[in-house]
Predict the structure of Lantibiotic ABC transporter.
Amino acid sequence: MTTVTGIDTRGGQHCETTAPGVLLRHQGLDLSEPMLFGLGSGLSFLYWDGKNLDFPFLGGRVKPFEVTRNLATTLGLDLRVRETASARRAWENVTGPLDAGRPVGLQLDSYHLEYFTSKVHFGGHVVAMYGYDDHTAHLVDTEQQGGAVSTSLHSLAEARAARGPMTARHRSFTLTVPGTAPSPRTRLVPAITACAGAFLDPPIANVGHRGIAKAATLVRTWLQRAADPRRDLPQAARLMEHAGTGGALFRNLYRDFLAEATDVLDSEHLRTGHRLYAEAAPLWTETAALITKAGESGEAHYLVQASAVLDELARLEREAMRALSRLGR
């Protein structure tokens, strides 16, 4: 049996801020969850639909593992990532750091984890692992999944080996804080302007403020798009609000990050961005509620209302990011 000592098992709201937070706190770098998300330039938006999807996917953040990579770059952390097609080598990549007294981050498909309350395939889920015995792995997951949790080694192996959208080949990683790492305070402006630039000038129309505008148009068709509207629309709304895919969770995190940043930087642009995201966050919750009502009732006028709210969100978030992009000027 191996258990890393000194682990703070606090679970956050989002998996890819919870796991790096565990790894960094173990080394004495304790940052709030909004600060981890903001320094990781995590906010974005994606509307995705395709033949391999049962229903459209709304993402409210950058792609899986990008927050971790951005955070490491921004703070000068040593990020060591290991991927392999070999289950044996993958297990060695985990037990090596654990046996040496270091927690490890894992990317996996949450569907296979025994403690997971929502059985939906999501290959971009991230957890921190801090111990194991002959039968069980000890993990830190989000607060809503229980924080400090356990799952069988068999289920963990299945979750790590899963293939499909957003999965990685048995990905594990460690983060190391060097003695020369820059102060988080000095990295606020680069992290904010990088996030704003990507949001304002996305590579395709499905992403950023253009993606929200596209969602405003296409959400009107969701009753026809759904195989089972009473199932699919409420499920999409639940994912938005409780898994954070395209709902208020990431807007709340970014709002709170900007509030922390205003304690450090005296900037009207920053205050404007914070004010607008404080307006935007509850509108995402309203959107999810309207989508749920449409699915339960079969009445299209709720989707017309959701479309109007999404149009307003595209405007608000575009205005917020334009203000934030001026921080570096």
About this structure: The CA atoms of residues 145 and 304 lie 34 Å apart. The chain has twelve helices and nine strands. The mean pLDDT is 95. Residues 268-297 form the longest helix (30 residues).
